[in-house]
Write a structure and sequence with these properties.
44% of the residues lie in helices and 14% in strands. The chain has 492 residues and is α/β, with parallel strands linked by helices. The chain has one domain (45-63, 72-478): Alpha-Beta Complex (Amidase signature (AS) enzymes), CATH 3.90.1300. An eleven-stranded mixed sheet has the order 1-3-2-4-6-5-10-11-9-7-8, sandwiched between helices. Strand 10 (428-437) and strand 11 form a beta hairpin. Helix 1 (2-10) packs antiparallel against helix 2 (15-47), helix 9 packs across helix 15 and helix 11 (314-342) packs across helix 12 (348-359). The protein is globular.
C-alpha cells in the first residue's frame, strides 16, 4: 500500500498512474472484504453445531458376524461423547487446553464407548465440557460456551454441556456425559431433554478421567425415552425381562415449595399422568428434608440446625455441603500434583473452586463417607423396591449467559440442595422435560434407590407419553383460563 502512495506522489500529473492506483486500492479492499467474509463464514460454520463439538470424527460400529441373530439394540443410532472419555489415538482433553497439552493420545478405549460401538451405535465426535468437570454452568473460557438450543440467551448447564446441546439440537440421537454433583441432570433440565444418572458404580468408569470417584457416574442424554432405555440396557447390562412391579410415587412437597415453577405445572401434571396408567399406587407425600434430618444422623456434625430456608431446607443444605467437600477432597487427591506443577489457565469460577479444593486441609474425612452410607440406607428404607421419589430437577430457571458473577453462590447452593440427593445416596435419577415456563424449559426428576436402574428406566418409558399429554392439556387450560382471567399468563 505504501508503494502505491509513493507512486502517486511521484506521478501525480499522470492519469494512467491514477487508474493503476485505483485498481490496486480496489483490489486491496476486495481482498480485505473477501477475508472478512471468509472469517464470518468460518464463525457461522463453527456455530452451526451450536458450539457443542470440540472435535469431529467417525467411529463406526464394530464388525458383526455375516448373519447376526437379531438387530443390534443401538443399530442406526449416532452419539457423541464428553471430552473426558478415552478414545484410542486421541488426547482426552478434560475440557482444558493445558491438560490436553500435557497428556499423550490414549492407547485404549473407554469401556462404555466399546460397549456402544459393539451394539451398533456410531460415535461422531467429542463435546465441550466445563474445565476439569468442575463446573455446573456449561461455560468454558477456552472453547466457548455451547449454545442452549431451547433458550439461546441462557446457559446450557454443565459440566456435560456440549453433550446435552448436541442432543437438544438434534445432531445426535444420544450422548454420553458424566454426573458428579449434577452434571447430567442440570444440563438435561436446562436444555429440555431427557437425562439419566445411573446408580453409582452401575456403569464401568474404566477409561474415564476421574473427578471424584465416590460421586462420579457415567450418564446419558436422549430426546426419546425408548432410546434412553435402550442405551441404559446396553451400559447397565440388565436383564431384558423382569417381573413387573407396581410403582409407588412419593412427592417431596417441601422441595417443590422451593421451586420457582408452580406446583400446578409439575406435581399436578405428574399426578394426573399416573391416574390414567395401570400399575401405580396412590401417590404419597413427604417432607423430605425432615426425613433426611431424622435418618442421616451424621449430618448433625455439620451444624445445620437453622430454620432459615433462604437457600433451601437445612438438612439438604448440610447434605450438599458434604457433597461439595467430598468432591473437593477427592479431586485434590487425584489432581493436586498436576495443578501445582502445570499451573493451568482456568476460567474465574473454575479457578476459584479448584484452588479452594487444592488448598483446603480436610479433617474428619471419614464422616463425609459415613453420611453417604447413611443417606443410601435412608433412601432404601423410604423407597424399597417399588418407590420413586419425585422432586424438581432444579429449583431455578437457567441463568442468563455471563450473569453468574451476580448470583453464582445462591444459584450453586440452591441447585446443590436438590442435586445432592442422588449424588450422596448413590441412587439413580431420571430427568424428564415438562415443556416451558416463562420461556425456559421445565423438568421433573424421578429418583430410585441404588440398583433400581432398570425399574426407573421402565417407569420413565411407561409414564412419558401420559406426562406429555398432561403438559399439552395444561397448556390448553392455561390459555382458556387466561382468556377468562382466572389464571396467570405463564405458558407451557
Amino acid at each position: 500500500m505504501s508503494k502505491t502512495i509513493n507512486l502517486i506522489k511521484a506521478n501525480a500529473s499522470n492519469p494512467k498512474v491514477w487508474i493503476v492506483a485505483g485498481i490496486t486500492v480496489a483490489g486491496i479492499l476486495l481482498l480485505a472484504d473477501t477475508t472478512r467474509r471468509r472469517r464470518r463464514k468460518a464463525i457461522i460454520i463453527q456455530r452451526q453445531d451450536f458450539g457443542a463439538f470440540l472435535e469431529r470424527f467417525d467411529l463406526i460400529p464394530f464388525p458383526q458376524p455375516p448373519t447376526p441373530p437379531a438387530k443390534l439394540p443401538l443399530q442406526g443410532l449416532t452419539f457423541a461423547i464428553k471430552d473426558i472419555f478415552d478414545v484410542k489415538g486421541y488426547v482426552t482433553g478434560f475440557g482444558n487446553p493445558d491438560w490436553r497439552r500435557t497428556h499423550e493420545p490414549s492407547d485404549k478405549m473407554a469401556l462404555v464407548l466399546t460397549a456402544l460401538l459393539q451394539n451398533g451405535a456410531k460415535c461422531v465426535g467429542k463435546t465441550v465440557m466445563d474445565e476439569l468437570a468442575f463446573g455446573i454452568t456449561g461455560e468454558n473460557k477456552h472453547y466457548g460456551t455451547p449454545i442452549n438450543p431451547k433458550v439461546q440467551s441462557n446457559i446450557p448447564g454443565g459440566s456435560s454441556s456440549g453433550s446435552a446441546v448436541a442432543v437438544a439440537a438434534e445432531f445426535v440421537d444420544f450422548a454420553l456425559g458424566t454426573d458428579t454433583i449434577g452434571c447430567i441432570r442440570l444440563p438435561a433440565s436446562f436444555c429440555g431433554i431427557l437425562g439419566f444418572r445411573p446408580s453409582h458404580q452401575a456403569v464401568s468408569t474404566i477409561g474415564l478421567i476421574p473427578n471424584s470417584q465416590s460421586l462420579d457416574t457415567i450418564g446419558w442424554f436422549a430426546r426419546d425415552p425408548s432410546v434412553l432405555r435402550r442405551v441404559g440396557h446396553v451400559l447397565l447390562k440388565v436383564k431384558a425381562v423382569e417381573p413387573k412391579r407396581e410403582r409407588r410415587l412419593v412427592f417431596a412437597d417441601d422441595l417443590f415449595q422451593l421451586s420457582k415453577v408452580t406446583k400446578q405445572k409439575t406435581v399436578y401434571v405428574v399426578s394426573k399422568a399416573i391416574e390414567k396408567l395401570s400399575g401405580y399406587q396412590p401417590p404419597q407425600h413427604i417432607n423430605f428434608s425432615q426425613y433426611v434430618a431424622s435418618n442421616v444422623p451424621s449430618l448433625k456434625a455439620f451444624g445445620q440446625n437453622s430454620s432459615n430456608l433462604q437457600y433451601g431446607i437445612s438438612a439438604l443444605k448440610a447434605l450438599s455441603s458434604v457433597m461439595v467437600s467430598l468432591q473437593s477432597y477427592e479431586f485434590k487427591t487425584n489432581h493436586e500434583e498436576w495443578v501445582k506443577n502445570v499451573k493451568p489457565r482456568l476460567g474465574p469460577e473454575i479457578s476459584h473452586r479448584v484452588l479452594a479444593a487444592i488448598n483446603t486441609k480436610y479433617e474428619n474425612v471419614k464422616v463425609l463417607y459415613k453420611v453417604g452410607t447413611e443417606m443410601r440406607a435412608a433412601l432404601q428404607s423410604l423407597l424399597k423396591d417399588d418407590g420413586i421419589l419425585v422432586i424438581p430437577t432444579i429449583v431455578d430457571p437457567p441463568p442468563k449467559l455471563n450473569s453468574m458473577k451476580d448470583y453464582s453462590t445462591e444459584f450453586h447452593d440452591r441447585a446443590c440442595a436438590v442435586l445432592s440427593i442422588a449424588s450422596m445416596s448413590g441412587g439413580c435419577q431420571a430427568c424428564v422435560p415438562l415443556g416451558n415456563d416463562a420461556g425456559c424449559p421445565v423438568s421433573v426428576s424421578f429418583v430410585s434407590c441404588h440398583g433400581a436402574d432398570k425399574f426407573l428406566l421402565d417407569a420413565v418409558l411407561d409414564m412419558y407419553a401420559s406426562l406429555q399429554d398432561q403438559v399439552s392439556n395444561a397448556f390448553k387450560s392455561a390459555l382458556l383460563s387466561d382468556v377468562n382471567g382466572n389464571m396467570d399468563a405463564s405458558q407451557w
